[in-house]
Design goal:
The protein has 156 residues and is of the alpha+beta class. It has an 11-stranded antiparallel sheet. It is built from 3 helices and 11 strands.
């Protein structure tokens, strides 16, 4: 019984209110099978949690919170289940987190440093990804799966 209570507490804490150390206003564009969005968003993070809030006309339409689970308006799910539903099941489970934090994807595969960031091109039978990170922008395109993810500084 103690184990069930502990598991339940851990699961429910995944979607609980977090205190974020950093909040950034960004222009977010997402084109995926489940989300089509292009407007202002807030990216909030701390050492252990990450959250993206998407706004249209000043109203929050979606909140994506990432820690050991990914929580959205539909509920919390594993990172791989989130990818399957919102992005592509072919992506590594940490892909969304890495995109939001402007970190390399696919464990840095094919990474080329640039003057103010890096680029990655990943191509196989399941993905055709172009990923560019600079000081003020992140651009992810997967031609095979029809996914675009862009984050730009508001003042850029």
């Amino acid at each position: 019984m103690k184990y069930i209570a502990l598991i339940l507490a851990l699961f429910l804490s995944a979607c609980s209110t977090k205190i974020y150390e950093r909040t950034q206003t960004k222009i977010i564009t997402i084109k995926s099978p489940k989300i089509k969005f292009s407007d202002v968003g807030y990216l909030r993070n701390s050492d252990k949690s990450l959250e993206l809030e998407l706004f249209v006309a000043g109203k929050c339409i979606e909140r994506i919170a990432i820690n050991h689970l990914v929580c959205v308006s539909d509920g919390c799910k594993s990172k791989s289940a989130f990818n399957e539903e919102y992005l592509s099941g072919f992506y590594p489970e940490d892909t969304m987190q890495n995109l939001l934090l402007a970190h390399p994807i696919y464990d840095g595969k094919n990474m080329q440093k640039t003057a103010d960031g890096f680029e990655q091109k990943i191509q196989d039978s399941k993905v055709d990804i172009s990923y560019k990170v600079s000081a003020h922008a992140v651009l992810f395109k997967d031609r095979t799966n029809g996914i675009i993810f862009s984050i730009k500084d508001l003042d850029e």
